[in-house]
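User: Show me a protein chain along with its predicted structure.
Assistant: Here is one chain, sequence first, then structure tokens.
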Amino acid sequence: LHYPLRRQRQMCIRDRVYEDGGFFVDHADDSILVGGEWVRNQPERELVSLLYLNGGFNGGELFFPQHDLMVTPAPGRIVLFPGTPQYVHRVERVVGGPRVAISQWHQIIQ
């Protein structure tokens, strides 16, 4: 994956805590599904970064079903990916939580 970053503007930082049993359904960060079609409603979420802060739990993987790709959380691990519908993802159910991460969204400015 290559992004020609000239400038980027940091838009939002948010902590994400998933307690035991927590999960998040399939979604794209910059779009919503309306009538079976993706509609871009948050262009500032063009690029996503996640920083995992803890261990000591099971599950809570970040799964990209279109790519059959599973990312296992680990303290200090950073994951970067586009927030577009081509990278729909979900958080698998956490067992023995909490799972703590920081999410940050970026908009690429041409």
